[in-house]
Design goal:
By secondary structure, the protein is an alpha+beta fold. It is 29% helix and 28% strand. The two termini are 25 Å apart.
């Protein structure tokens, strides 16, 4: 599971953003199922930042979001993210120099049918 959240940060807000990102990343990293994470800035747009994390599974990520520490330390940062989809399932990955493919868990009709069976 890959989670990518983008942020628009004004030049005078970078220090505050990083002050929020550090404990957010630490809180996420302390949760079971966390694999890796990083905060970065776009090299071609100094106002665009990203918080990217990798998780063992969708369930591990969702359980992490319900943790008290994550609610206290990460959610205030997450509220500032650009409003767009942020959770992705891996379909291709390089392992030991070879590209490995995954089927994915997303249902073929996921775009037309909701959780209750209605579109």
């Amino acid at each position: 599971m890959i989670v990518v959240s983008r942020y628009r940060v004004p030049r005078d807000g970078v220090a505050e953003f990083l002050d929020l990102a550090r404990p957010a990343l630490a809180a996420l990293a302390a949760r079971p199922g966390f694999v890796s994470g990083e905060v970065g800035r776009a090299v071609d747009d100094s106002a665009l930042f990203v918080l990217a994390t990798r998780w063992d599974s969708v369930g591990a990520y969702r359980r992490a979001l319900s943790s008290y520490d994550v609610k206290v330390h990460a959610v205030p940062l997450m509220y500032r993210a650009v409003d767009e989809p942020s959770a992705f399932e891996p379909l291709l990955e390089v392992t030991d120099g070879s590209v490995v493919g995954y089927r994915g868990d997303r249902a073929d009709d996921a775009d037309t049918v909701g959780p209750s069976g209605h579109g």
